[in-house]
Amino acid sequence: AYYYIRHTTIETFSRCVNENTKRKGLLDILCAASEFDAVPVRSGEEATLYGLAQQLGMKVDKDKLNDPHTKAQLLLNAHFTRSPITTDLSSDQKFILEHSVRLLQGLVDVISSCGWLTPALSAMELSQMVVQATTSTSSPLMQLPHFTPAMVDKAKKMKVEDIFDVMGMDDGPREKLLDGLSQSQLADVARACNRFPGIALEYKVQNSDALSAGGSAKIA
């Protein structure tokens, strides 16, 4: 109730998830949520969805292309890969994304109540993928707005691997990397970089002289 999730969805989460559930399985469970019953499948849209599945490299049963939960999974994967979709599908995708963050918060709570660390972390990772429109294996640069795989390849040739590298670039090379973006897009990139958190960690091992291989240690 805290996340305004249907009780049928919580029941589905509780019944389907277990301590060995991987991220792909969690995505399947997420897409089975009752909230996605409301995702419309328009007449004749099956062909478009099948084409999207092929574009994404996903195997789908043609008989299930009129299932709103199948559509939800396709549009979430399209979101992760930033694949172009039609205007109608974009509207449906927005509906799915608005529900997904809240549903994943509920899923994390269900998993945590069982004391399962690994699937809980996977669910949190999936939530980050929804928010950032990227996969966990993608370049960190894809977290920046308007960045494309081609720009990531260009950055790699300039030995720019992450967002901190972009922030540390001289003006000339950075302008070359971002060439082609409009002024408003450049402002979006700058805003994202300025908001990116920088975390410094300092630690000290206590009684390091008394440590032995395989023993326990205290860190302060």
TrEMBL record:
Listed GO CC annotations: membrane; spliceosomal complex
Top-rank taxon, per record: Eukaryota
UniProt-listed Pfam families: Sec63
Main subcellular location of this protein, as a coarse class: membrane
InterPro entries assigned: Sec63-dom (IPR004179)
Keyword field contains Cytoplasm: no
Limits of the SEC63 domain: 1-219
Alphabetized UniProt keyword annotations: Membrane, Transmembrane, Transmembrane helix
GO biological process terms on file: spliceosome conformational change to release U4 (or U4atac) and U1 (or U11)
Membrane topology of this protein: Multi-pass membrane protein
Record-level Gene Ontology MF annotations: RNA binding; RNA helicase activity
Protein name, entry field: SNRNP200 protein
Species per Swiss-Prot/TrEMBL record: Symbiodinium pilosum
